[in-house]
Each structure stands twice: as C-alpha cells, then as structure tokens.
Amino acid sequence: MQIKYTAQGTATKGGRGGGNAQTPDGKVSVHLSVPKEMGGDGGPGTNPEQLFAVGYSACFLGAMHGAARKLGIALSNDATVSAEISFADREDNVGFTIVARLTGHVPDMDRAETEKLMQAAHDICPYSNLIRFAHSVELKAA
Question: Which of 25, 45, 119, 138 is exposed most, by the fewest CB atoms within 10 A?
Fold first, then answer.
C-alpha cells in the first residue's frame, strides 16, 4: 500500500461533548456539540456524524465521477450525493456503530443507470471501503 496523502485532526476539551476539533493547518476548526437525540444539549456545534456525512458525500461524488470516466459515461456537474450517517448501538451491546445511507441524484440519468454507476463508485470510494471491510487501526499513546 502506498500512502498518497495523510490528513490530521485533533479533538480537545472533551471532544464531541462540547469540545473542539481542528486540523493543524487551520483549514478546519469546529466546535462540537452532542445532538439532543443523543442526550446532549443540541448546542451550536457540529458533531462527528455530520462531519462524516459531508466527507463521505464529497468523496463518493468524486468516486462517481471516476467510475463514470472508467465506464465511458458523461456525468453531469449537476449530480449530487447526500449522505445520512446514523449513530447506532452495536448488536453486541459493547459500543456503537455507524450506519450509512447514500442517495445519488443525476438529473439526466435514469434510476437503474444511476444505481449501476453508484455501485461502481462504491467499489472505488475509500469511505465505502472503510465501512464495508474490516480495517486495522493503530492505537498509539503519546
């Protein structure tokens, strides 16, 4: 595996429970709040699930463009992808999991063709790969 790019982010002051998260270059800096649906105050900050939804939808739309090129299909710049990211209890009751739903909208393409393109993009997108297959995560104390 050849790493092409590594993004960094750090959460501070309690993380999702009223803390902050930012990148070292300052391009992303957000205040975090827990949604009321999860027992929080629903404050003005965002949450990790919203950040994941934005990242996944952007990455998947890029993967759709890549898949379209591979398939010789012209994909309109009006195409969109919306991601719903749900925070859920795991079946083993040990922790939590993420449940994702992607909705693709391509104005000049029928549903069957859009679904075929989305399936090809699902094979390309690294977010999809991360969700579908087990990956090891290196945990390191500093």
Answer: 138
Contact (CB, 8 A) for 102 and 81? yes
Predicted pLDDT at 135: 86
Instruction: Answer positive or negative: Cα dihedral of 91, 93, 97, 103.
Output: positive
CATH code of residue 24: 2.20.25.10
In 3D space, the residue among 60, 52, 50 whose CA is nearest the CA of residue 114 turns out to be 60
65 and 76 in contact (C-beta within 8 Å)?
A: no
CA distance 13 to 31: 10
- Asked if the model's pLDDT at residue 19 lies above 90, the reply is yes
Predicted TM-score (pTM) of the model is: 0.92
**Owning domain of residue 103:** 47-135
